[in-house]
Amino acid sequence: MAQTPGILRITWNRANIAVEKGATYKPAGNKANPVVLGTEVNHSFEFQQGSLKATTALKKGQRFLDLYQPGPGELIVRLDTGHVFSHPDAVLMERPEMNSEGGKVALEWFFGEGMEQ
Question: What InterPro entries does this protein map onto (predicted)?
Fold first, then answer.
């Protein structure tokens, strides 16, 4: 039986960030769009940015700036299957909010085409 991804680990600007189960990773790449010409359907491509959505928690002694650093930085996504994706141009969408349910912090990055190692 083959293993499929179950654990996702994130490194953001050299800081390891533990994330909850349920994180979603979407690589950047071309997206096909339908082009209808009468009864014919063709296609065109457009580039679509990649994204990563994950939830972590701010732990005692951890710096908030480890989670939020404005501007581009390096995002590395590691799966427990051995897949590693590197994005040197990643940007955090917005300053994250913290809630009172264990200090959970929702994070979302966007990035261009990365590299699979």
Answer: Phage_Mu_GpM_tail_tub
The Cα–Cα gap between 45 and 29 comes to 10
Q: How many CA atoms lie within 13 A of 36 on its CB side?
A: 2
**How many Cβ atoms from other residues are within 10 Å of residue 100's Cβ?**
6
Say which amino acid occupies 89. D
* Helix, strand or coil, per DSSP, at residue 85: strand
pLDDT tens for each residue of 54-109: 999 888 887 777 777 778 999 999 998 899 999 999 999 888 777 777 788 899 99
Q: Which CATH number fits domain 8-116: 3.10.450, 2.60.120, 2.40.30, 3.30.450?
A: 2.40.30
CB 99 within 8 A of CB 82: no
